[in-house]
Design brief:
The chain has about 80 residues and is mainly alpha-helical. It has 4 helices and 2 strands; from the N terminus they run H-H-E-E-H-H. The chain has a two-stranded antiparallel sheet with strand order 1-2. The longest helix is centred in the first third of the chain and has 17 residues.
């Protein structure tokens, strides 16, 4: 999906995504366990109100699951 948007090869896209996650983690927006490959919301999100969190939850529901992404890759999409 990111490859189609940026017109980059898969390795360059992966590097870009990792760099973005590292920047968000460095700023406190995310907590990233690189070894376990998990991402959680960071301490900066703790100050958000319920309206902000409900918008975030709605956006989260719109993201493809890892199973969807794996299926897309297997199909060559």
């Amino acid at each position: 999906m990111f490859v189609e948007i940026t017109n980059r090869d898969k390795a360059a896209s992966n590097r870009s995504v990792l760099a973005a996650i590292r920047r968000l983690a460095g700023a406190g927006w995310l907590l990233w366990d690189e070894v376990g490959q998990t991402v959680r919301l960071g301490p900066r999100v703790a100050a958000w109100g319920s309206a902000d969190l409900s918008a975030l939850r709605e956006l989260w529901r719109m993201l493809p699951s890892s199973a969807d992404i794996g299926q897309s890759c297997a199909e060559g999409l």
